Amino acid sequence: MSGFPFIFDKKLSCRSGYKTGWLNQLTRIRLPFEEKYMEQIIVFITLLLVLALFGWGKIRHDFVALIALFVLVIAGIVEPAASFSGFGHPAVITVAAVLIIGKALEFSGLIDLLGKWVMKLGRNLLLQIVALSVLVALASAFMNNVGALALMMPVAIYLARKSGYPPSYILMPIAFASLLGGMTTLIGTPPNIIISAFRGDHSGEPFGMFSFTPVGLVLMIAGVAFVSLVGWRFLPKRTAKKSDNDLFDIDDYITEVKITGDSKIKGKSISDITELTNADYQVLGLVRGNKRIHAPDPDNILLEKDIIILETDTDSLKNFIDDTGVALVGGKKFRQDAEGSDKIVLNEAVVMADSPMIGQTASSLRMRSRYGINLLAVARREQKIRKRLDKAVFRAGDVVLFQGREHLLNDTINAIGCLPLARRNLRIGYRKKIPTAMGIFIISIILVVAGVLPVQVSFSMAAVALVLTGILPLKNVYTSIDWPVIVLLGAMIPVGGALEDTGGAKTIASAVIGLGESVPSWFLPGLILVITMLLTDVINNAATVVLMAPIAIGVAQGTGFSADPFLMAVAVGGSSAFLTPIGHQSNTLVMGPGGYKFTDYWRMGLPLDIIIITVSIPLILWFWPL
C-alpha cells in the first residue's frame, strides 16, 4: 500500500450506518479524497463493467444487472436490506401488469380480428407495409411491443410469400413500428413507465397515462410514415418463397443428414453428389464413427451410417433429401406407429429473447425426450455454426426447424419460448371475449386518468379481472410476464439509486452542463436524447433509462431548468434503438426471419434517428418548456 498516503485514523461508513461492506472494513483510513468520491468511483467502475457486459452479450442482461447489484452490496454502498427493494417498485409492478393485460387482449381474439383483416389485403407491397406498420404501432401503444410484433410477424411472412416479395422489406419496418408505437402512452414501453416513476420521486407527481402522447404520437406518425413509405427501400432484398405451401425461406441452414442403406449416394464420392441433385448446398463436414472430419476431401467415399453436415436452405434441403435418399438425423420416428404418418409435420420458429433455450443445446435440453420434438436444423445470421447440430448453443434470433406431431407442435414451440414462422392458424385466443376484455382495460385506463387509482394498482386489478373472467387462462398468467425484464428492473433500480445517492449522477450532470455552457438552451436536452439513443442501441432500453434518468434530473437541477423536458428526452431516446439488432428484442426477433445482417439496421435506422432528433426536440420543448 506504499503507493497511497493512507493514514489509519478514520473509519469509513455508509450513509445509513451499514458497516459490513468491504469498503467499510478499511478502518481508520483517510483517503486523499472524501468518502463520497470513493463511493462514486466504485459505482462508476461498476457501471462501466455493466456496459461492457451488456455490449459483450454473452451474459443475459438480467444477470448483468444482478452482478452490478451484488457488487454494490458487497461494497457497502447498497444495504442488504434494501438490495431487493426494487422488485416492489411501482414501475416493476406496472410493467408486469401491462404484460399480463397485453397477453389477455391477445387471448380475447382482438388481435385475431385485426390480423384476419390484414390478410385480406392485396399484393400491393406498399399497402401491406403501411397497414402492418400502423397496426403494430397502434397495438404497441397499449400492449408489450414485442408481443404486438410477434403476433403480426407470421401474418407479414405469409403476405410476403403469397405476394412474392422479400420478407426483409416488411419485417424491419414493423419491428421499428413496434418501438415507435410504444412511445405514445405510459404503458406502451417499460422506459415510459420508469421515467414516470422517476418524475414521481422527483416532483411528487408521476407522468400520466397520456403525458407522452403529444410528443410520442407525432413521432409515431412521422416514423411510421418514413419506414413504410421510404425506409424499406433502403433494405437489402432477400429471396422470398412464392409457394404458399413451402416453409419460410431462410438462408444458411446448418443441418445433418445420414446415409442409409437405400441412399443413392452410398458408395459414391462427395463430388459425385452434384450428378444426382441440383440442390444448392455446401458440405461443411463429415461424421464417421463419431469422428468429425472438417472440410472433407471431395474424393471421400460415402459409407452407410455416415453423417453429412450441410449448409443449405429449406427448399434445397428438401430437394437434396428427395434426390439422394438420405435421412435427416433429427427425423427419427416418435413412436412405432408414427412412421409414414401424415400427422408428423415440420415448422420453423425463431428463438425469442426470453426463451429457456438460450445458452442451451438440443442435447442439454433433451428436446426429443422432454418436449417430443426433433431439431432438424438451425440458421443464424452473421455466423456459421461449426458444431454438431445437437451441440450448437442457441441464441436469441436463431431460426430453428422443428419436427413434431401436428396437434402439439405449435403449443410446444410456444412453450419453449419460440415464435412459429410457418403459416399457421391466426386463432390465438381460446374464446372471443373482445367486449369484456376491452371494457376491463378501458375502465382501468379511466381510473388512472381520473386520478382515482395509481397506475400500478389499477392495472394490477385489471390483470386479476381478466383472469377471473376467463379471458386469460390462469396457467398463462406467469408465462406472459417477461421475467428477465422484471429481474433487470428490480436489480437496476437500486443501482440507479446508488448512482444518485453517491452523487455520481450529479458529477456526470456537471460534465454535461460544462459541455453546454456556450450553446443554446435546447442543446442540453438534445444532448441527453442523443446519449440515451446511443446507449440504448447497445444495452437494454430499461437499463439505459434507469441510468440516464438520474443524470437528466441532475442536469436540470444544475441549470435551474424543469426536469420534465430532460426526462422526456430520455424516454424518447430509450425507445429509439434503431441502429443495431441487439438494442431491442423486436430488432433481434426479425433478424433471422428477415435474413438481416448486423449492418443492415443502420440503413433505415440512421435516417430514422435523424428524423426523431429533428422532430422530437422542438416538440419536447414546446409541450414541456425549460
Walkthrough of the structure:
This protein has 626 residues and is an alpha+beta fold. Among the domains are: 7-83, no CATH class; 87-239 and 434-623, no CATH class. The chain has helices at 35-56, 61-74, 90-108, 110-119, 125-140, 145-163, 168-182, 190-203, 213-229, 314-324, 362-365, 367-371, 406-415, 434-449, 455-468, 483-501, 504-515, 523-536, 541-559, 564-574, 585-594, 601-623, and strands at 7-8, 29-30, 253-258, 281-288, 291-294, 307-312, 327-328, 344-351, 374-379, 399-405, 418-420. Strands 3, 4, 5, 6, 7, 8, 9, 10 and 11 form a 9-stranded antiparallel sheet that branches. Strands 1-2 form a two-stranded antiparallel ribbon. The longest helix has 23 residues, at 601-623. The chain starts with 6 loop residues before the first strand and ends with a helix. The relative contact order is 0.14. The model is unreliable at 1-32, 239-251, 332-341 and 423-431 (pLDDT under 50).
**Structural class assignment:** alpha+beta
- The overall strand count is 11
Report mean pLDDT, rounded to a whole number.
81
How would you sum up the global shape?
Answer: globular
Using the CA coordinates, give the radius of gyration. Answer: 27 Å
What percentage of the residues does DSSP assign to strands (E)? 5-15%
Query: Largest sheet, described in full?
Result: 9 strands, antiparallel
Number of helices in the DSSP assignment: 22
What distance lies between the first and last C-alpha atoms, to the nearest angstrom?
Answer: 49 Å
Pick out the low-confidence regions. 1-32, 239-251, 332-341, 423-431
Provide the helix percentage.
Answer: 40-55%
